[in-house]
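During the reporting period, we have paired protein sequences with backbone structure tokens. One record among many follows, to show the layout:
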Amino acid sequence: MKVTVDFEECLKDSPRFRAAVEEVEVDVGELESKLDKLVKLCIGMIDAGRAYNTANKQFVNGIRELALQSTRDEVIGSSLAAFAETLQEMNNYHTILFDQAQRSIRSQLQTFVKEDLKRFKDSKKQFDKVSEEKEVALVKNAQVPRNKLHEVEEATNILTTTRKCFRHIALDYVLQINVLQSKRRLEILKSMLSFMNSNFAFFHQGYDLFSELQPLMKHLGTQLDQLVVDSAKEKRDMEQKHSTIQQKAALQDFSTEDTKLEYNVDTDNGIAMEGYLFKRASNAFKTWNRRWFSIQNNQLVYQKKFRDNPTVVVEDLRLCTVKHCEDVERRFCFEVVSPSKSCMMQADSEKLRQAWIKAVQSSIATAYRENGDEPTMLKLDRQSSASLGSLDSGGEPVKSVKGESALQRVLAIPGNETCCDCGQSEPRWASINLGITLCIECSGIHRSLGVHNSKVRSLTLDSWEPELLKLMCELGNRVINQIYEARREEMGGKKPQPGDPRQEIEAYIRAKYVERRFVTKLTSKEQRSKVIALSKQDKRLKGSVEFLPPRPPPPTPKLRTASNTTALPSGQEVRRDSLFCPDELDSLFSYFDTSSKLRSLRSADSGIQNSADGSREMLASTPSNSSLSETDLQESESPVSLNQKDSPTVFSELTDFSPGVLLYWASCACSLTDMAEALAHGADVNWVNVEDNNRTPLIQAVQGGSLVTCEFLLQNAANVDQQDIRGRGPLHHATMLGHTGQVCLFLKRGAKQNAVDVDSRSPLSIAVEAANADIVTLLRLAKMNEEMRESEGSYGQPGQYSHTHSQTEQQYKKCIQEFISLQLDEP
């Protein structure tokens, strides 16, 4: 035992002894504080561990439940059960570990603090008390006068007694100090060693437990690798099957009702026909309920849910007949009549009603042909079955849809017959802003690039607008690959092949379109030469006005009718001068008049009605030729064209030949290839030419007169409302130049027809001044349509008003799209 405080020094009560005692007391105080903190932390750890064990137990129970639910899959069920048992054992080991921590740390150290340290503090109190008494006795003994013998003797006796008591208590205190100093080492090491042994046992048991599970885990790891491969293959097969079914469904000539057909023919299970029908109940209310009907085993049955037992409507089809029902309010109804009752049913379409009637009749005939010994199972002939093909085709070829036409036209472009990126044959997808065709796998990668890089659309499943379809035909895989793969071989880029890993194809596509790693870098000199070459193609820079609208003729008293046509050379289709004849205008404005009257009843405001009447009156006396005043024509021309004669070198003062400049002049020259190249070089589609009245490429495309060029810029995120220095947007310029097709396109893309320029003129006021009947009509209809939509949103009135607005909006959109088609069909 190591003596911390010397007993001899204790008897002397020397300053060395007092210093040693004081040091021990400070040390024991800190020890008590640290032990209290450690015990509290241990209690917190044990509580948290028990909470963890409870949560872990619940988690293991969840795994067991999942294993029971997956009993049909032997691999998953058995594996999860084994994992659950192992985790439960580990949870038990955790419980043992925390119990040992409770005994070794919390109990032992807490006992040491509460017992040993408490005895030390009690001894200290006694030592302090006797020390104080000793000091008092010494002082009193020293102060007694010499001549007072009685007091001297009394003081001497008290001092002697106090010294004996002090020595006894001081020796006991020193003994307590030395014992505590020795025991503290024992208790701390004992408790901590016990806790560490518990941790060792816990991890050793866990290691042994998982060592036994390791062969199963390795086996499952091997199976998992194979499952990854099989899953990828299954996913690819499912995607191909999904695409095939989608294409097949898109090629079917279904009506709106026919697309909802859900019936099947399963002759192997005795089912001749099945699908949803509405059944009229036999109660007093004659309610209609939708049920799943089937014809099987010479019976007509239905059920509400799959697990329900079928309800028999007709016991024996040989005793019943079927007929049309035209005397009820609902459409597509037919009745199955038996000797005891009749059942009224309703199909979703006329084709489906005919199919059900034919199936019932065929089942009746088949039941009569069967022998009595044979099971009464329907065996419909393939020619009389209500299959999907017989309903739609009826022996006639399936009509082509928009998707099929788009596929044929786009794939007819050289180079489009294979995927632009991997070379897969027969692509069925396209990137509309790039103008390329893609296979299904590359289309998925393009979607992941974001719509700011690539907008993907199906060539078979989606509808295609004429302007978008023509844009696809103007570009194509060869054109785009000459731009985006110009330096591919030079850069060592390997073009992926069909069947290559998706990661490789995705890396190549990102390098090609996002990083544009294979695009040729143009020098300033090359850009300058390209811009100058493009400017020479611009009719405005040649000083020609042949593509500007003609001067206005003398006003005519009425609008041209559809019979007013212009004689065209032989071989060209004759088309009318104006989009709208009087009958069409009456039809269009009748929609607005009806809706305006409805709104006037609700808001006592006839503003829109007056607007509609005023438009018809104005158009009735407006010529259809597109023209502007001479002043407006001069304002529509750029400063460059006005100075062309005096300054043939238009670009002598320009020094920044950025891709934006290239896109600017390529848009004016209507060169889609150069525009695509400019965008590939990083041109800003909304680049502003500060030297040309802040015009943008889209405004230049309007000047060029090409509708497809405008569509290309809009598909690549051009701002349809960006204005020049005079506050005129693309819609203003298209109206001033009389480009009706572009006006339709901008209205279709949501251009603001109420925007005004610095002269406070809107596109509508410009069209009225130019006496362009078509554009005035379109802008009037667009304005009314917008006002009706806002009014409907304000009043929130459903019913006839919403229905009328829907009809009006459909008619308006139809006019817009038809005129765009007419513009694209022009030679």
